[in-house]
Design brief:
By secondary structure, the chain is α/β, with parallel strands linked by helices. Helix content is 48%, strand content 15%. It is globular. Bound molecules: nicotinamide-adenine-dinucleotide. Nicotinamide-adenine-dinucleotide binds next to helix 1, helix 4 and helix 6.
Length: 256
């Protein structure tokens, strides 16, 4: 097991990609702290892991709030003594709207959670890893961080910025044997994708799904588990010399 004896923290661990990553980290032997703003959801993920013999603790926190971030970091260090892997993943889609009509409050919310939340995670987890002289962070960007996403200005801007943050952090902390990478998923079958389909075409969301799938070389959406496996690999010692990468997991969507 690639994460045997290690401690992993996952934000947005209550659902979707984060939940799949919590389960994958636990399956590989890690103790997991499941962070989410949704208390019931993170408790459910932690319970599912505990029921199968793993070790997982739920911690409710809003990643956009500095005090909450400092609390989940302190809780993990107080409980398990260290943080080996950090999946900095919580994010929201915001609204679907032309840029020239994009609501300012929504802009602030998306940037606050996706970008400031990712920054705060790095800001408070990296010192722990630097002190350990080892650790690995995986930030969740998106294909929308590598190409534009019309009608999703805040989301796309936040995800491009996460790639910039990832590269900058990688450049700063590599000398401490701490690695920082990003994953860039394409459309993955989660609540977020369903929500986007409904916002893009409220009358016929399945038409959006069909069009997305038709545009993808693999002819399907990805599964959360398929992202989770790459995340665990990047966080493991198997990826020891991977630093500052933005790893596409999109079935080839942006290759064509
Ligand atoms: N699903 C996709 O197609 C896709 C593609 C590319 C990138 N992503 C990214 O993957 C990440 C996970 O998305 P998902 O598809 O699993 O979505 P999801 O909505 O299923 O899960 C997101 C989780 O984050 C939590 N969360 C939201 N705001 C939070 C906050 N302020 N503090 C703490 N937790 C918070 C939610 O409660 C939820 O449990 C996001 O960063 C998203 O942008 C998703």
């Amino acid at each position: 097991m690639s994460m045997e004896g290690k401690v992993a923290v996952v934000t947005g661990g209550g659902n979707g990609i984060g939940q799949a990553a919590c389960i994958a980290f636990a399956r590989e032997g890690a103790k997991v702290v499941v962070v989410d703003i949704d208390r019931a959801a993170c408790e459910q993920t932690a319970a599912a892991i505990s029921e199968t013999g793993g070790v997982a603790h739920a911690f409710m926190a809003d990643v956009s709030q500095s005090g909450d971030v400092q609390s989940y970091v302190k809780y993990t260090v107080d409980t398990f003594g260290r943080i080996d892997a950090f999946f900095n993943n919580a994010g929201i889609e915001g609204v679907v709207s032309p840029l020239v009509e994009y609501d300012e409050a929504n802009w602030d919310r998306v940037i606050g959670i996706n970008l400031k939340g990712t920054f705060l995670g790095l800001r408070y987890v990296l010192p722990v890893m630097i002190a350990q002289k080892k650790g690995a962070v995986v930030n969740t960007a998106s294909v929308a961080g590598t190409v534009g996403a019309p009608n999703m200005a805040a989301y796309s801007a936040s995800k491009h910025a996460i790639i910039g943050l990832t590269r900058t952090a990688a450049g700063e902390v590599g000398k401490h044997s701490v690695r920082v990478n990003a994953v860039c998923p394409g459309p993955i079958k989660t609540r977020m994708m369903q929500s986007l389909e409904s916002m893009i075409n409220p009358a016929e969301p399945t038409a959006v799904a069909k069009a997305n799938v038709a545009r993808n070389p693999m002819g399907r959406y990805g599964e959360a588990e398929e992202v989770a496996r790459v995340v665990v690999f990047l966080a493991s010692d198997e990826a020891d010399y991977v630093n500052g990468a933005a790893w596409l997991i999109d079935g080839g969507r942006t290759a064509i």
